[in-house]
Structures are given as C-alpha cells and as structure tokens.
Amino acid sequence: MWRCFDGVVPTVFSTCDKQGIPNVSLISSVRYVDSKHVAVSRQFFNKTTKNLLENPHALAVMWDPLNMGMHRLRLRHVRAETEGPLFDAMATRIQVIASHTGLAGVFRLVAADVFEVVAIEADPEVLEPTLEEEEILPPKPGPIENRGELWVLQRLLGEMRGATNLDCLLEAVLGTLDETLGFDHALVLVPDETGRRLVTIASRGYEAGVGAEVVFGEGLIGIVAEKRESVRMGPIDCQLRYGRAARGREVDVGTRELGREIPLPGLSNAQSQLALPLIADGELVGVLAFESSRVHAFEAWHQVFLDLLADRFAHAVSDMLTRSDSTESEPPPPPSITLPPAPPSRPSLPGYSLCYYKNDDCIFVDGSYLVRGVPARILWRLLNVLEREHRDEFTNRELRLDPWLGLPPIRDNLESRLVLLRRRLAERCPEIRITQRGRGRFGLELDCTLSRVERASASIEPPA
Hints:
single chain; alpha+beta; Pnp Oxidase, Chain A; Beta-Lactamase; Arc Repressor Mutant, subunit A; 3 domains; seven-stranded antiparallel beta sheet; six-stranded antiparallel beta sheet; 12 helices; 20 strands
C-alpha cells in the first residue's frame, strides 16, 4: 500500500457522532506509523475531532494512484499526540507546504491523531494503468539481497575515506549517488557566517546553482535546516494544491495577512523532493537535497538509506571544515614571487571588470552578481595581495589570522567558503582560478586582464 500513503488521490475519511450521524472529509494523506497504526494530521477537523471524542471508530478509504485499487481501513482512535517524534515529523512536512504557499503560522499541525488499524478490506478490482509504469514510478526493486544498498554504502564510505579535500568529497558523493541510484539533481548547502542562511557549495544536474541561498525556515530546504528533520515530498503538486486551497479559504475570510509563496528550488517541474540535515556532534553542518521530475522518485527506503549516509557524510564534511592548518603541520609561506609586467595590450586574453560593494559586502563581475560575504572578502584580499606584493600563493592560516575577513575563531568553515568561491569563479569567470597547492595552501591564477573598483552600495539583490 505504500503508494496510497503519498496522497496522490485524497483519502475519504469518515466518522460518526454518538447518534450515528456521519461526517465525511477529504484529507491529503494518511501517515504509516507501524504495522498496526496510522496517523492523521489534525488541522481544521473541528467536526471530525468532536465525533472522535464521542465515538472513536473511523473509516479511511484510500486508493493506489497507479491502478486505483481501493483499500478500506477500519480504524479506532487511540490517542492524539501534540509533541514527540511523530508529531514533529508530521508538523515539519506541513510546515514545508505552508511555507511554499505563504501560510506559515496559519497552516499548522494541531495534533497527530493515531489510530489502531482494526481491519483492512481490499477491493480486488483494479484498473489498467493509463501511463507506462516506468513513466511515473522508479524501477521495481529486486529481492533485498540483489538490490545492492550495502554495496552502494560501502562504495560511498570508501569514496569519503579517500577524499583529500572538501571539493573531492562533494564530487565523489554526489557523483556516486547519481551513478548508483540515479539521483541526478542534487544540492549540498552549508550555513553562512550569519547562521541564518544556507549557501549552496555543490550541485549536480543544474546549469548553475553554486552560490544560491536559502533562508532558514523558508521552503523545504530551509525548514529541514531549522527543524533538523529529513523530509520526503511527492507528488509535490498534489501537496501544494491542498495548501493553496487552504490559502484560498484564508484569503476569502480575510482575517489574516498571508506571506508570499516561496518558489520550489531547482527544477520547475519537480514532482519529488528529499532533503536531509547534515548533523555532526549535535551541530548542523549543512543540508543534502535531491529532487526529480518523476512522481514517486524517492521511496521510503531511500529516505532510510540516506539518513544513514547523511550521518557519516556530515562527519566527513565537518572533518574537512575543521581540519587543522597549524604552522607546525605546513611549510612556511613561500617567498614573494615577482611576476613579470603584463604587456601593454594582450588582445588574446579575456578581460573582466570586478566591483566590490563595501556596504553590501559583495562582488559583481561585468555587472552581474558573483559572490558575497566572506568569500567575497577573501577574493578581494587575494587580488589586493597579488597586486601589492606580487604574491600568488597563500595559506589557510594567513586567512584565518586576517582580521579584515572576520572569520570566527572556532568553526570558521573556511574550506567550504573556498569551495564556494572556486566554483563560482569557474561558472562566471573561469580564467580566474583558485588551485590547491598542498595541505593548507592554495594559489590564485589569472589568465585574463582585470579592472577593479570599490563602491559603497550595489542596490541590486543577489539571487535567492
């Protein structure tokens, strides 16, 4: 019945009062709890709640969206949970829908009503699917011994152990998940220096994406970061329709000021999403997110499998971010390199115009946003040193000790900021490169001509 629990077809939920007068509601989904229990989210069910207090019996009629096979679940209400893991997981899912439809604070979970499944009656009559099954479903898994999750996990752990820096780690994990599980649209985001935004440092399957930002508490990724709960969504359009219907009712009543709708990240036609927090030693180090244009692309076992992976991946990312770069473990800074003067005109070299806006703490290249915050300050400092001292090699340690950069003394995430800067440069101006030159050392290489200027304010918002 796993497809029935995704809410593609609304569930018909029926209760009766003590006189036997029925009340029937359409609900977006029923949640599987265990082999004997299911849960229903309580949001607007005033009449349903009143009936259950008088008569604990209920009937849920659910449909398989592929063949319309019908299942009648005869239920008995056993409790209402207003806290705990089940409540938190259901509340997080509802909060994602509320955020995307501008109903944050309005569309919320009041309680999770848990029911004992007394009996299940299945209708043997089913329809032939109107679409090819492979168009809407992932490949059917084989027997558990042939599915290979353990082999995939073993390979991923080996890739993580062999990674020498954060760049290699991100590429290895996202690449292996794409190759082995078909997860071809993925993002890795880490908190920025404010601790209230996530910034994308790695992406797969998108033309661009590195540097994109998400505010904590907004949309799927922001809520996963804030709540530290993994969330699997699909099919998204069905869930959003339910939220928008609730939004329409609030607009009609006109009693509340509603927020703006938050666009979905990445794919415009996304039908499935899965996002997982990366937590190491009790601290959020990032979010791992996937999406697909296919309905049911992510199954329940994918979420369990990736929860296991996310734990090890989070510690690997944390280790890379906090790797020691003490003076004793690295050679002294190299002597200054005198670069030959550039010829008066090099028409074969591309040219870039960079502008650093001090008040907005961001850099634009040729009038378009490049990067902001600590990565912007790092690039500007490197360019200043290159111009003033003719030095093109630097150490992580000197950046950490530079007061102008404003890195915190503990968990400065310098490695992730260098990865972000390196990838943004590769996307926007590949002739400006930051290259690894050993542990704790990197170089700045230019195959272009540059003009640089500082200004007060940009008056242009960087992309969300």
